[in-house]
Amino acid sequence: MTKQEARERIEKLKEEIRHHSYLYHVRDKIDISDAAWDSLKHELAELEKEYPDLVTPDSPTQRISGRPLEEFKKAPHSQPMLSLQDAFSEEEVKEWEGRIQKIIPSAKLDYFCELKMDGLAVSLIYEKGVFLRGATRGDGRIGEDVTQNLRTIQSIPLRLRLPEKKELKEIGFNEAEIKKIISTAEKGKIEIRGEAIMTGRVFEELNRKYKKEGKALLANPRNGAAGSIRQLDPKITAERQLDFFAYAFVTDLGQKRHEQEHEIVKTLGFKVAPQNRYCENIEEVIKFQKEIAEKREKFPFECDGMVIVVNENSLRGRLGVVGKAPRWMLAYKFAAAEATTIVEDIVVNIGRTGVLTPVAVLKPVSVAGVTIRHATLHNMDEIKRLGVKIGDTVIVRRAGDVIPEIVQVLPKLRTGKEKEFKMPRECPICGGKVIKNKNEVAWRCESRDCFAITRRQLMHFVSRQGMDIEGLGEKIIDQLLKEGLISEAPDIYDLEEGDLLPLERFAEKSAKNLIESIDKSRQAPLVKFLNALGILHVGEETAIDLANHFGDIEKIRKAEPEEINAIPNIGEVVAKSISGWFRDEKKEKMLNRLLKEIKLENPKPVRRKQILKGMTVVLTGELAGLTREQAKEAVRQRGGDVSSSVSAETDLVVVGNEPGSKFDKAKELGIKIIDEKEFLKMIK
After folding, report:
1. What residues pair up with 579 in beta bridges, in sequence order?
2. pLDDT tops 50 at residue 400
3. Which alpha helices (DSSP H) does 349-449 contain, by range?
4. What CATH number has the domain bearing residue 56?
5. Are 100 and 327 contacting, i.e. CB atoms less than 8 angstroms apart?
């Protein structure tokens, strides 16, 4: 066989193997035996061995390749992988629809419902039809590049299948749209999103195998899937035999309805859950959820509910996003698994802001396959509401199948030996005074030198949401604190390999890796730095608002509470907390030390004509062409400030559909009013 003949044979073999893979994984059809399929793959492997320069990344032989990684690289998402709001009852689902109807009263709502598989959400990018990169969700904006591991999953095609015109026509696309879909699949870039899962059968087989080998068992299929994807060695991932189901794609291929996305990904070679269903109204959604709840035990994978998606994609922009959750999607969870157990004790945890959180110590109990030993009681108000005492028999559940909580006390099972819990008046860690402010439900340790607060602050500082210092976990922080090597965040940047080598758990390589990880964090975005500081009431969203508004750390340091309070979404209490933090002498010294070590990357300003400079703008009603956040950002980029209320200080009111009382007040005060069309023309 000549090299040219080998090249042609290889291409034909790859195409044939892909075809049978598609039939098996997507169409659930088998038209050749396993032995014949194996024979085709064997022939391909032998030819590629003879002609290694003909091996391509999309070859079925390349699913497991490369050496184990030392670490995962960061992978920013082109569009955020959003979290979902949860609902647990029919009433909550109907309330969700009611909120949508208030925003777009004229819209006829229908839905597409998907099984909410209990696995790991991932994003797949294909370029010119070939699998280029795969990433985990991460924090929604930035995930981890796990391409090597995702390549091992047989149901993830290494090359997209080119759909046939008749398939796309049946879905409802016209000739121009069909041409665009096929052209993009062949020559452009497509991003698919879905769930990597471990089936119950594989989970049980692996645990039987691991038990024989004396290895640690997998806790449950979800942890098995997530842990497999985050293995640095792809051979281990391949052993886990994961599966993949697609549920959406980010690329605009002309899809008008969400259900079309499911049909398109099938034509491209992906599996979708066959149970997914179109529902004409919310009553059908609720009926479908009950049906799925009864059948879920028979599914080959774990399923903790279903995702309801507003079917018309055109409504997404008008509905927008609340925090990190899109208004057009809702996770309708099954009733959380519950069990009874005994509260053996109630202890308190000290958070990074000094808040004392009561935690129930439970007699260990298995809930939905996970052993529960602790449950949060939140605060004293919650303890009083539940009426829980030490020694009580309680019902505990994993709310949303994640966070353990006590939902009910069974007082008839009391013996008379139960004890009431009282919040300690002294911090159990440092002995400092515990206080409760009038306007808060929380009790706090008043001491600024409390070890528990310091520890929590350090853990928050190095976390993924903060400075993201990999390898500096809870146990290492405890060790460094115990040895007196660190006492506050800036001390981390004074550490050297020589400080670490004498410590337990550290060898030359691990010490070097940690110092390198610390050095990586010496350059960081302003947003992550602000979040890492652990300022009371400042989370990721508020950090973004501060960074975008002020642009650099020095302006934030000098800002008065009133100036901070003027930023949309930041209220008076938060503004005072931020200003007070930067004026605290101890915090100021710590900040100065940090700024000597860390180079901050300020948000890049968007250069626009400052046509709204010095003006206060109010938005009211629903905008069709922009989300509310996009409109606010457009105002800010052009020098204006956005206010949530109309007053004599307001310069301009932009009115959309169904404006509220702000519109009436603007007319009453004689303030200039423009509609959305004029606004869009103004900012163009």
Report:
1. none
2. no
3. 380-386
4. 1.10.287.610
5. yes
Question: Encoding tokens for residue 145?
Answer: 């590049």
Q: Is residue 480 part of a domain?
A: yes
What is this structure's pTM? 0.55
Is 419 annotated in the active site? no
Whole-angstrom Cα distance, residue 124 to residue 120? 13
Sheet holding 652-655, edge to edge: 641-643, 616-620, 652-655, 672-675
Q: Is residue 336 a contact partner of residue 399, using CB atoms and an 8 Å limit?
A: yes
Q: Is the pLDDT of residue 275 over 90?
A: yes
Mark whether 149 and 166 lie in a shared domain.
yes
User: In the chain, what are the helix, strand and coil shares in percent, each to the nearest 5?
Assistant: 40, 20, 35
Question: Given this model, what pLDDT does residue 65 score?
Answer: 56
Q: Which of 256-260, 312-316, 337-341, 373-377 has the lowest mean pLDDT?
A: 337-341
User: pLDDT tens for residues 502-539?
Assistant: 888 788 888 899 999 999 999 999 989 999 998 988 88
> Would the pLDDT of 648 be above 70?
yes
Please give the backbone phi and psi of residue 522, each rounded to the nearest 5 degrees, phi first.
-70, -10
556: pLDDT strictly greater than 50: yes
444 part of a folded domain: no
**Cα gap 567→7, rounded to integer Å:** 63
d(CA 563, CA 498): 46
Question: Is residue 154 assigned to a domain?
Answer: yes
The structure tokens 């060790």 sit at: 479
The amino acid sitting at 168 is: L
- Say whether pLDDT at 298 is over 90: no
Query: How far apart are the two ends of the chain, measured CA to CA in Å?
Result: 63
Q: Which of 14, 102, 116, 482 is catalytic?
A: 116
Token pair recorded at residue 459:
């853990």
pLDDT band for 135, please (50, 70, 90 cuts). very high
Residue range of the domain that includes 457: 451-521
